[in-house]
Write a structure and sequence with these properties.
This protein is mainly α. 51% of the residues lie in helices and 0% in strands. The chain has four helices and no strands. The chain has helices spanning 8-17, 34-45, 50-57, 61-69. The longest helix has 12 residues, at 34-45. The protein is elongated. It starts with 7 loop residues before the first helix and ends in a 7-residue tail after the last helix.
Length: 76
C-alpha cells in the first residue's frame, strides 16, 4: 500500500523528502566520516592544496575537488 508508480526522478525526490537516502558515512563504500569532511573543508578554506589533502586522507584528488565544489558531502 505504501508503493506508488513514478519516474526515477519522482522516486528519488520521494526518497530525499523522507530522508531515506544513504549519505556520507552511511554508504558502505565511503572512506570518509563527517568529521573528516569538516576538517577537509577547513583545510580547503585555508588554501591547502587538494592533492595534499587527498594524500592525507587516502582518497583521490577528485574526491576532494567534489567536496570543495559542493557536489559530494554537501549535507555536512
Amino acid at each position: 500500500e505504501h508503493l506508488f508508480l513514478g519516474t526515477k526522478a519522482e522516486n528519488n525526490s520521494d526518497m530525499d523528502n523522507k530522508k531515506r537516502r544513504a549519505l556520507g558515512e552511511k554508504l558502505n563504500c565511503g572512506h570518509l566520516k563527517s568529521e573528516d569532511v569538516v576538517k577537509i573543508k577547513n583545510m580547503i578554506s585555508e588554501g591547502k592544496r587538494q592533492k595534499d589533502i587527498a594524500s592525507l586522507y587516502f582518497v583521490s584528488r577528485s574526491a576532494i575537488a567534489q567536496i570543495s565544489a559542493g557536489i559530494n558531502w554537501r549535507h555536512v
